């Protein structure tokens, strides 16, 4: 369930939903609501939406700079998962872009096949609230931002500029996906996709599936050709042995 931070304009008692009860809305106290409910109440002009920090124009410029300058061959680091319970190591300020509190906790880390460290992305929950990291795109960054631009543009700082920056970021990330396609077709063992968004995966699924299917067919054809060559060689040896036996008799 994707959550978003809101400021109510009217009082509303808590609602018992399938995902659990919501907080009572008491102006002007902030709270979080499921995205679908926040959009519904926003269209009824009963709340204002507080956009996540990464949707601020200055932070979008920083993300665009990260994508184009510091991470030219891969996606910028995603927001880390919440810390494991009982893990109290201090969060390394240099490990991810953007300002961090010294009181934050060390998130869960993973390592790829080459031994490079990366942080798992959290697709839901707090990645789009007012407490989200300022310089890390969440998994559903593209869909979420366009929903807010459509339903809550008056709550955004310079919605037109935000729309332009989002378009630039999307174009840069699409170019990285295309380079990933070329790496796959050139025989690479794989492509790093940590930090990729849901929309980018969805747009690329058909092409990647086709490429992988083609590579499988190529591999299958090579294996079939190898087997046929081995059978021909075996038949040739058997004929030679038969001819030698006839000559000896």
Automatic annotation (TrEMBL):
Keyword flag Nucleus: yes
One biological process term in Gene Ontology: chromosome segregation
Basic and acidic residues compositional bias, start-end: 220-240
Main location as per UniProt: nucleus
Alphabetical list of InterPro entries matching this protein: GINS_A, GINS_bundle-like_dom_sf, GINS_Psf2, PSF2_N
Domain annotation DNA replication complex GINS protein PSF2 N-terminal: ranges: 2-50
One Pfam family this sequence matches: Sld5
Region (Disordered): 219-249
Keyword entries, A-Z: Chromosome partition, DNA replication, Nucleus
Record's subcellular location: Nucleus
Keyword Membrane: no
Domain GINS subunit: 120-218
GO annotation, cellular component aspect: GINS complex
Subunit-structure text: Component of the GINS complex.
Biological function: The GINS complex plays an essential role in the initiation of DNA replication. Has a role in chromosome segregation.
Family named by the database record: Belongs to the GINS2/PSF2 family.
Protein name listed in UniProt: DNA replication complex GINS protein PSF2
Species name: Lithohypha guttulata
């Amino acid at each position: 369930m994707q959550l978003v931070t809101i400021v109510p304009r009217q009082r509303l008692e808590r609602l018992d939903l399938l995902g659990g009860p919501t907080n009572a809305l008491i102006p002007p106290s902030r709270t979080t609501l499921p995205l679908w409910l926040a959009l519904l109440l926003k269209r009824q002009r009963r709340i204002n939406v507080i956009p996540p920090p990464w949707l601020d124009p200055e932070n979008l410029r920083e993300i665009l700079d990260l994508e184009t300058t510091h991470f030219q061959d891969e996606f910028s680091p995603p927001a880390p998962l919440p810390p494991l319970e009982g893990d109290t190591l201090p969060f390394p300020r240099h490990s991810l872009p953007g300002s961090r509190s010294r009181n934050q906790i060390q998130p869960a880390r993973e390592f790829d096949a080459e031994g490079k460290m990366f942080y798992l992305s959290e697709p839901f929950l707090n990645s789009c609230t007012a407490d989200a990291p300022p310089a890390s795109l969440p998994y559903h960054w593209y869909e979420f931002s366009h929903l807010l631009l459509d339903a809550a543009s008056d709550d955004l700082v310079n919605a037109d500029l935000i729309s332009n920056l989002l378009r630039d970021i999307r174009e840069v990330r699409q170019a990285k996906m295309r380079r990933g396609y070329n790496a796959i077709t050139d025989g690479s063992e794989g492509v790093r996709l940590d930090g990729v968004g849901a929309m980018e995966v969805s747009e690329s699924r058909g092409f990647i599936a086709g490429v992988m299917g083609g590579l499988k067919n190529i591999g299958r054809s090579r294996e079939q050709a190898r087997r046929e060559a081995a059978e021909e060689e075996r038949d040739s040896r058997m004929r030679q042995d038969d001819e030698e036996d006839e000559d000896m008799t």
